[in-house]
Specification:
Layout: E1 2-4, E2 21-23, H1 38-43, H2 59-62, E3 66-68, H3 74-86, E4 93-95
Parallel strand pairs: 1-2, 3-4
Amino acid sequence: MKYFDLLSQRLKLSMLDRFYVKHMAFSWEREFRLVVSVRQAEEFGVQVPEKGVFVEFDLDALVEVIYFGPSLTSEDADRIQAAAARHCLSNRIRVSSLLGTPRYV
């Protein structure tokens, strides 16, 4: 990912390049994205299956931490916890510090 101050910078990006840009406020995430452009594949004559393309990957290598954000519903949290358990990633779930009570001096 590339991080920019999107409030002060105007970027001219292709549709594909937009998938690799986030606001500087999220730079702490150090996010990694893998994008498969079905549209671009079709432009090069690659026949794309109706149900999409299967891309093999290693979740253990790709997922370091799963953060639960402040606006996550309990239903979504339950679904994520179940999916994490199915893939042996339950120990990587963290609750965002944004949910905590600030300590003022």
